[in-house]
Every structure is written in structure tokens, then in C-alpha cells.
Amino acid sequence: MAEPLQAQVAAALARIRNPRLDNDLLSAGMVRDLVVGDDGAVSFTFLLAPDDPATLVRQARAALQEIEGVRRDAIKIAVSNPSGPAKVTHGPPGAGDAGPAQPPPAPEMPDLGRIIAISSGKGGVGKSTVSANLAVALAAAGRRVGLMDADVYGPNIPRMFGVSERPPVVGGKIQPLEAYGVRLMSLGFLVERDVPAIWRGPIIMKIVQQFLRDVEWGPLDYFLVDLPPGTGDAQLSLVQATHVSGALIVTTPQEMAVGDALRGARMFERVGVPVLGIVENMSGFVDPDSGRRFELFSSGGGRRLAEELGVDLLGSVPLQPRLAELADAGQPILVAEPASPAAAELQAVADQLQRKTSGRAVALPILRG
Which residues of 251-286 are buried (b: 16+ CB within 10 A; e: fewer)? Predict the structure, then answer.
């Protein structure tokens, strides 16, 4: 079976090495915002420092032109000095610069640290539970953590952290609320609980941008974003508004949830955001009295999804009595019952996330068809 075009493009770029860094282009974080269209068009931003060989751009273009299915006349490479403006080139080698890149690269927000999108293909898989507990675990490890609740249709983070007051505004900046060492912002702080979320795309884009730019987050090490399920406006708004370091995909074991999660993961790959791994939630139930394990929602879906994407299964979080009850009471399981099986698995996911993001930019995964 032939590899998908996205995988071939990523593999071609990964074969090109930067002699200055002794690393390939993807692992060195030199390729940003990679988009591979179904029509064979390829575009990305090439971060080229002044002391990097300029021939790397020509090598990248030549490598892409060798791939069957890539249109030679539809390769756009926006060359950007990490500290300067971007320029974009079109067409064959030797074509002149054509002004500013279209669209421009997403702006960096270094004060936010590593920006991690937490997403799911469908609702009801426990994405917000995973987001809340990962934020708590990172904060307990001494990291400065912000959690942005971008699920505008079902903002559950306020309830899960037991905070509900309206955030103050100081000097024109919204001050995030804080609980368990995590700085929080959610639409749930700003609207009444019974107000229906009837939002069109432009409104969602404005909410995401306001939460990024108009909130006084302060310097952070990790900025987690709890996204709504699916592949809609909030996801696209986030990746257009800032550079996302990577995405975590939350699923449950059954095939229906896995299929939806796969589409969500492909969306991130399409816009150049690496998928850091899969978290399988509701992964079986162990009877505390008998010790018997029951697979209530099938089994193995998270691992199969991880294998199809060529990424790691970061954890399988079991069902646990009182987990939902504690969440409703504003007590994440890592705080209320840190020695429980679910808490231990969530802690392991947080530990792996730190290891994966402790170095330089994460390489784009190589897809396997």
C-alpha cells in the first residue's frame, strides 16, 4: 500500500540534514506550518538562520519535486529568519521572491511556553478530565501552567477546578483565576451557566484570540488548550493564532471513537502540528472487590490508533468509581486520590509529556499508510 502523500513529504524533508546542527530539518524544528493539499500543493515555512546554508531551501524543493503526486508548480516555501520577516517563493528553483508569505506564519508567543492542544474526535471521551489532571500534574512538578478552556460549547473546566467567579480585569488585561497551581481561563467564567452556546465561526475565532492575547497569563512553561471535540473553527483558530508545539488526542477504546479521533489527528498533521501521542480513556474497569477486569467499551482501540498514526500510546486510563463525582465537586483525581489507578496513569502521561517536550521542537511524525 502506497504511503499517503503527507507521509512522503515528511519523509523527504526528514532525509535532508543541516550540517550546522548535525540534525535533519524536521528534528531541528526548521519546518513549520506544513500543509499538504489533496491536489498536490505543498506549503510550509522554512526557518533559516543567517548561518544556515541557503542551499537547504533548494534541496528541500528538489526533494519535494521528486515525489509523485506533488505538483511542481504548487510548492510554496516561505523562508523566514527566526528573528526576521518571511518571504515566499513559488514554482521552480530560481523563481523570484513574491512578497510576504500567504498566509503568514502563526506568531510565536514565547511567554506561553510549550502550547499543547488537547483534542478528541467526539464528545464524551473525557478530554476535559485528561486536560485538568495533566495541568495539575505539571503544576505539582513545579511547572508554570496555564489551562485555556477553548471548548466554547461545553466549558467544563470551571466545575472541574471548583472555581466559578468572574475574573477581574486589571489594566485592560483579564486576570486568570487559579486553582491547584494552575492558571485558568474559560468562557464558563464569563457567561451564565444556562446561556446556550450558539456561536458562529468568527465569534469562536475572536474568543480564542482574546483568550490568547488579552489574558494576563504571565510567563508559563506549559499552556494547555482544552479544545472542543471535532475539527472545527476552534482548532483552526488556535493553529492560525499561534505556534502550537503539539497535540494530544484523547479517545476511548471502541472503534467509533477511534475513527473520529483519527480524523482529528489527521487535521493536526495537515496543518503542521505534530501529534505527540494518544491517551486512551475509560480503558476497562477493575472491580475493587474481586479484582476482575471488565472491558466495558471494547479494548485496544487507543493502541491501534497510535500504531496507525506512528505515535506513542501515552497511557490507558481506567474507569474508576467516584472519578466523575470528584470532578463534579471540583477535585481532580490526582488531587483527591493520587494513589488510585486512574491517577497513576494520568501522572504517567504527564511525565511522558514532559520528556517529549523537554528538548527542541518536536519533529513531525512520519505517517504510515
Answer: bbbbeebbebbbebbbbbbbbbbbbbbbbbbbbbbe
Taking CA 42 as the corner, what is the angle to CA 36 and CA 46, rounded to the nearest 5 degrees? Answer: 110
% of the chain beyond a pLDDT of 90: 31
The four Cα atoms 171, 114, 27, 246 give a dihedral, to 10 degrees, of -110
pLDDT of 92 reads 45
Task: Let me know: does 246 contact 207? Beta carbons within 8 Å.
Answer: no
* Residue 233, CA atoms < 13 Å, CB-side half-sphere: 13
Percentage with pLDDT > 70 across the chain:
81
pLDDT digits 0-9 by tens, 261-296:
888 888 888 777 889 999 999 887 766 676 666 766
| Spans in the chain with pLDDT lower than 50 | 1, 84-104, 360-369
| Closest by CA position to 140, among listed 323, 335, 317, 331 | 335
Q: Is the pTM of this model over 0.90?
A: no
pLDDT for the residue numbered 352 = 94
**Residue 315, phi then psi, degrees to nearest 5:** 180, 155
Q: What are phi and psi of 286, to 5 degrees?
A: -105, 120
